[in-house]
Amino acid sequence: MPLLNQPSKPKSTFKGGRRRQGKRKPGYPFEAQIKYNGEVIVMKKILPTLLAVILVLSASQTVFGATKNDAKRVIESSVSFAFEDVYGETGYTVGDSKNFYIYNISGADASAYKADYIASVKKALDEGALSGIKDLGLVICNLQMLGENPADFYGFNIVEMLKAADVTDCSGTPYSYYYAVQACVLAGLDETEKALCEEMLGYYTLGSGTDFWGGYGTSADDLAMFILTLIPLKADYQQYISDAFSLLEAYKTDEGYSNYGANADSTALALAAYSADGSKEKADEIYDILIENFYDEQTGGFVSDFDEYYATADAVFGISVYLPLADANDEGDSSQSVSEEKEDKPEKEEKKEKKKTSPSTGASYSAAVYGVLALGAAALILKKRSE
User: Fold this and answer.
1) Which of 222, 238, 272, 301 could form a disulfide with 318 if both were Cys (CB 3.0 to 4.6 A apart)?
2) What is the full per-residue pLDDT of the chain (387 aa) written as tens digits?
3) Integer Cα distance of 191 and 201 in angstroms
4) Prior bond to 232 cis, omega within 30?
5) Are 179 and 101 in contact (CB under 8 A)?
6) What is the DSSP-derived secondary structure letter of residue 66?
7) H-type helices in the chain, by residue range?
8) Residue 144 C-alpha from the chain's centroid
9) Which residues contact 41 (CB under 8 A, 6 or more apart)?
């Protein structure tokens, strides 16, 4: 949901999408003219041939994607823009678990937020206020990323709570199943993971897609989250995953993936889906579109006609999932991270010491978690976080 009473931020002058070219002359391009040796030559006859050559060259152009440093720089600037300056202004509590989850998988240093978040989770458990597959899944993932044991947390076994939860209680959104399934993978709840996926399939029709909204049909966002949820059990659900990918492509435009118009959110979620599936070439292509059309270097976030902070959060999620697929850094690459660049500039007064990211963590969780989703080994997470 959009934030209320958001602090003012510098607005980008870039609205996203392709830049418009100058006004074209009547008859363009078939009346194009050039001067050669003082003579004006009409291009009517040769222009179709030139256009055909251009189309062939365009179709064969290379998709470049990004190096890991490129992706990390975007993640760091976006985390600073949305998560530290806005979402994390007063810290993170159990009610902020979704945003804290994205903050954690970005690789940012969450140590300054840890104590308050843990206290908030403990309070919710003491009051019997923590329930539902979405919230339990998010809390399990966050505690694991913070180095806590959700199976033995101040006398509570949150893993068992998820195991006993009602798998039909998805709050009408695929996100609930996604977070719950990730938690199951981390906690080794194979039967619960399978039950969640099977329940989610009830919202999907092959050839038509998802419908979590009581007749409103599918969308690029829901299809991407549906795919991401099933990826850990890809061998069991390949038919559904392939079908969802084919439907997702119907929402692709030159400007990005569309949900009431091309936008950063839908494009970022598509990036996450293809990245989790290991489709590097496709992920590289989508990453390029996301950065070209929606990333604002001036603010460090992503532009949106609806909510630029929400869009930036989705972008951080998508790029964090993409990061393990990004190209290795060029040999001798001495480019600085956003954090290192800040150290070179005159020191600015920080609102809070906790608004510092740690480039050394570099999305270690995102790399690990999708390894875990593929291998089904939660121990890899803890190993990565301790390195």
Assistant:
1) 272
2) 343 333 444 444 444 443 333 333 333 233 333 333 344 334 443 344 434 434 443 443 445 678 999 999 999 999 999 998 899 888 999 999 999 999 999 999 999 999 999 999 999 999 999 999 999 999 999 999 999 999 999 999 999 999 999 999 998 899 999 999 999 999 999 999 999 999 999 999 999 999 998 888 999 999 999 999 999 999 999 999 999 999 999 999 999 999 999 999 999 999 999 999 999 999 999 999 999 999 999 999 999 999 999 999 999 999 999 999 999 886 555 454 444 444 444 443 343 343 333 333 333 344 445 444 333 333 333 333 334
3) 16
4) no
5) yes
6) -
7) 47-59, 68-78, 97-105, 111-126, 133-145, 158-163, 174-187, 190-201, 220-230, 238-248, 264-276, 280-294, 308-322, 338-344, 364-375, 379-386
8) 20
9) 33, 34, 35
State the DSSP string of 162-204: HHTS-TT--TT-HHHHHHHHHHHHHHT-HHHHHHHHHHHHTTE
DSSP letter for each residue of 242-283: HHHHHHHGGGEETTEEBSSSB-HHHHHHHHHHHHHTT-HHHH
Q: Considering only CA atoms, give the Rg of the chain.
A: 23
Tell me how far apart the alpha carbons of residues 2 and 21 are, in angstroms, rounded to a whole number. Answer: 33
DSSP state of 96: G
